[in-house]
Amino acid sequence: MSKVITFGEIMLRLATPDYLRFSQSSTLSATFGGGEANVAVSLANYGVDVEFVTRLPKNDIAAACVGELRKYGVGIKNIVYGGERLGIYFLETGAVARPSKVVYDRAHSSISTIEKGMIDWEKVFEGATWFHLTGITPAISEGAAELSLEAAKTAKEMGLHVSCDLNYRKNLWKYGKRADEVMTELVKYVDTVIANEEDFQKSLGITASSDVESGSLDRNVYEGIAKKAMELYPNLKRVAITLRESKSADRNDWAACIYDGKEFYVSRKYEITDIVDRVGGGDSFSGGLIYGLLTYEKQSDALEYAVAASCLKHTISGDYNRVTVSEVTALMKGSGSGRVER
Which pLDDT value is given to residue 61? Predict the structure, then answer.
């Protein structure tokens, strides 16, 4: 049976209700979320044996966070403790032409002061078959970047499949190193890379000929991007690229493509309107893709599962994708009318 390990930061999420702006709202909804934790919850929902590894402070807020992870069936036995605080992010949900806005308050968080040697990766990876991380964690601090690289190297040495969502966050790279300096080294130990066109540009220096700010994507360029990534990194087994066409804050077209060195496949496109919560959409794709690759023989089926899972996430408030395998497969088969199930 497959066992997946994810590693990264989980934060307290404080969001304004409905579509209120920060300046309007007198209340904030408190939940938890973070890229790699979101992937872990998705996989647990699908019945996969999964553990989330992070560093947390010893206080009641962190205890509540761990309790929520346990509630969803995510393993937490390899979480380490220390440091000052849990990171926080504030979310203002956008609408129509006004984009959503995220404000980070994660300086001096427990994981930002983590260092090499604080996690026994050989122990963590015992019995595991897959390791997932993102480009967010290496952006937090130099120590977190060094530990991410150490983890990827150890996972490869122990025979795990390593996946990485490049997940470029310009507001995080502030400790003196650029994303491309760090990520080009880390990707040498990755088997499956997941990214959008901006991630490739900022993290690996691989440019697309489309305008990433325009909201309109030319899919014809993505086979070239995938092939170039695999040429630069011969260790890669596949490249998955998400294709989001942003019409407005609450209306997106959503698809993805995948390339394994032989077959280039583009998924069905979903027109997503009246988006409830876009945050975590990419993480739900990663979780769906990992599950799909562990479950289906064809990478095309794995990709369709990932895109359908992520499409459903856009209808769910919060970071986590709280959907089941049967709900995802129903959408894959064309059941997207939203009719009441009785």
Answer: 97
